[in-house]
Amino acid sequence: MARWADVEADVPEFAASVRRAFDAGTNKTMATLRADGSPRISGTELRFAGGEATLGMMHGSRKRQDVRHDPRVAIHSPTLEPPTGSLGEGDAKLAGVLVDADPERRGDAPESGAFRLEVTEVVLTTVEDGQLVILWWRPGTGLQERRR
Fold first, then answer.
1. pTM to 2 decimals?
2. Domain 4-147 is of which CATH architecture?
3. For the CA atoms of 116, 119, 125, 128, what is the dihedral angle to 10 degrees?
4. Which entry of 15, 23, 76, 102 is 20 to 30 Å from 94 by CA?
């Protein structure tokens, strides 16, 4: 697993493109796993700052319960219609494990609702010259590309 800063350091142009796709709108979609293993999708907000991809969840929310049970998630960039005649910024996805962004919280303090993503995969899908272009990055394997 990697921090977002690792992606930025390894493939800065790719990371900037992924970030633009995520920053195109406020609401992202996150997939979590329920206690019975079935999937759940929820709206979320994601922020890139200080080399981290972070998000927050309300205490008692279903998605937070899911993450406490199984921290694996996938997060999809906002789905926006591109302007006429444009292909837009593309479609981005992040996958990984959410960890408490405030692990030093102790004692009677309530659990933190802030999480950071330990990245296992980053994907950017675009259309170029009539071809679907899929770029993906994983820790240890670097950036790969497939066109079809």
1. 0.89
2. Roll (2.30)
3. 110
4. 102
